Amino acid sequence: MVEPRISPDALCALLGPAQPGTPAYRWLSERITLLVADGRVLPGARLPSERALSTASGMSRTTIVRAFSHLMDTGFLDARRGSGRVVRLPVHDVPRAREPIPTSGSHRTTDTPLDLTSAAPSAAPGVFEALRSALDALPSYTAGSGYVAGGLPVLRRAIADDYTRRGLATDPENVLVTSGALDAISLLARHLVRPGSRVVVETPGYPNVFAALRLAGARLVGVPVNSPEVDVPALLDAARTTGAVAILVTADFHNPTGRLLDESARTALVDGARRLGIRVVADETLAEIRLDQDLPMPSPVGGHGSGAMLVGSAAKTYWGGLRLGWIRASRRTVADLARARLSGSLADPVLEQLALATLLHDQPGIGDERRAHLRDARDTAVRFARERLPGWDVPVPPGGLSLWCRLPVPASSELALAAGRRGIALAPGSSFSATGQGLEHHVRIPFTLQPDDLAHALDGVAQAFDALGPAQ
Question: Does 437 have pLDDT greater than 90?
Answer without folding.
Answer: no
